[in-house]
Amino acid sequence: MAREYNISKTACLCRSCQKHLEPGSELVATVREAGEELQREDFCLDCWSARPQQADHGLLGSWHSRVPASTEKKKLLVDDELLVNLFQRLEHPDTAAKANFRFVLALILMRKKLLVYDRTEAMEGQETWVMHLRGDDTPV
Ligand SMILES: [Zn+2]
User: How many CA atoms lie within 13 A of 16 on its CB side?
Assistant: First the structure.
């Protein structure tokens, strides 16, 4: 079962107030589950701090970012530090979608050689990959 995960590129618009996000301005980027896809939504700082604080179950992760200046457009959308951060924050996924997303993150991190595969163990009747992050021996 291979599912494609696409994280769409920022449209430089606040999802909430539709304000154009100027290059260099701060924003909060979020990734949420939308059916079979992952959807990226950006918010200006005002809207993000004003949004309701109730639990948002579709939300997989959020991070502060900055709208790239036009000369930086070729930079990676998601940097390595963010991927590791999301991976660590999803250590105890409470939904299948988050668990799937974490698995995808693990594959990406392995490809980037930031995460190293050690062995497979049977845990609670499930095959579980034991790995460690590069530069940190703590098993994950
Ligand atoms: Zn806004």
Answer: 15
